[in-house]
């Protein structure tokens, strides 16, 4: 099978546990680019943060960000964007503020969240992964609902962090029972993401594939999280990282090494070394 697109998750896949890129990963990306394969990043990060990683890897293509809600190569000219309306964002935040959770509205230009303290260190880890606050302002307020009354926001994505699995489950059920036009994606036991109905990493790949004329079965998707599961199942070649949970590994066609053991570079070079450059194959076909 000839694969024409490589889709890579960022955190837990491209990046090591310390948040850094390995030189071997950069080399692997360059290796695949020489095969004329389209490379995209598929991530829950906001666009500007993903663009920073793409720049480090010398990837200049459309990126699937905000969990699939914002796709593009430039901030001002997205290929695709879908948002939760201002009114719906406000109503969701009102409901969430009854729970003990940290709420973050992730807009492509800024982030705003409540100052609710939870014992989990997930939020602090997330902030460390954010891009430069000079270019992506991050604001915290006492009451997010009150802030939205003064300055409404149509959110591409809302991130919510919890201390306990029980509270997460209760909040997830409440949101799904109350709002029919959003989806709730469980990232792990301490975090959910609320997105417009139908938004997912898989949907983002389908949108980009339609734009490029590339089918799902011509794609390789590499990820490590529960939110990567659908795209790993549906891609032509689905790859799970060695650090992925069992459910993700079970759905994959290929399991590579972990993100701290050069998993991406190992898989990419092992597989794509067998594939001729696409332009070369097209020349032969046209003779």
UniProtKB/TrEMBL annotation:
Cross-referenced SUPFAM superfamilies: HAD-like (SSF56784)
InterPro entries (UniProt xref): Cof, HAD-like_sf, HAD-SF_hydro_IIB, HAD_sf
One Pfam family of this chain: Hydrolase_3
CDD domains: HAD_Pase
Molecular function GO labels: magnesium ion binding; phosphatase activity
Gene3D superfamilies named among the record's database cross-references: 3.30.1240.10, HAD superfamily/HAD-like
GO cellular-component term (any): cytosol
NCBIfam families for the chain: Cof-subfamily, HAD-SF-IIB
Record PANTHER family: PHOSPHOSERINE PHOSPHATASE (PTHR10000), STRESS RESPONSE PROTEIN YHAX (PTHR10000:SF50)
Protein name: Haloacid dehalogenase
Source organism per UniProt: Aeribacillus pallidus
């Amino acid at each position: 099978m000839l694969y024409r697109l490589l889709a890579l998750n960022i955190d837990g896949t491209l990046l090591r546990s310390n948040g850094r890129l390995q030189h071997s990963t950069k080399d692997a990306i360059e290796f695949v680019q020489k095969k004329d394969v389209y490379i995209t990043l598929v991530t829950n990060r906001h666009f500007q943060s993903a663009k920073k990683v793409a720049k480090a890897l010398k990837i200049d293509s459309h990126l699937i960000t905000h969990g699939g809600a914002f796709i593009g190569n430039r901030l001002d000219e997205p290929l695709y964007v879908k948002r939760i309306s201002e009114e719906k964002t406000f109503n969701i935040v009102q409901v969430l503020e009854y729970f003990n959770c940290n709420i973050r509205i992730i807009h492509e230009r800024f982030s705003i969240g409540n100052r609710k303290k939870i014992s989990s260190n997930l939020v602090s880890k997330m902030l460390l992964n954010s891009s430069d606050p000079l270019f992506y302002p991050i604001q915290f307020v006492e009451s997010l609902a009150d802030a939205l009354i003064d300055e409404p926001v149509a959110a591409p994505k809302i991130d919510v962090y919890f201390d306990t699995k029980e509270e997460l489950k209760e909040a997830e059920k409440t949101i799904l029972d109350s709002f029919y036009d959003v989806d709730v994606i469980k990232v792990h036991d301490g975090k959910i993401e609320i997105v417009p109905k139908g938004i997912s990493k898989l949907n983002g790949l389908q949108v980009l594939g339609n734009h490029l004329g590339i089918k799902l079965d011509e794609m390789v998707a590499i990820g490590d999280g529960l939110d990567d599961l659908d795209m790993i199942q549906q891609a032509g070649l689905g790859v799970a990282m060695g650090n992925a949970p069992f459910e993700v590994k079970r759905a994959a066609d290929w399991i590579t090494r972990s993100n701290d053991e050069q998993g991406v570079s190992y898989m990419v070079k092992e597989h794509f070394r067998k594939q001729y450059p696409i332009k070369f194959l097209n020349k032969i076909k046209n003779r």
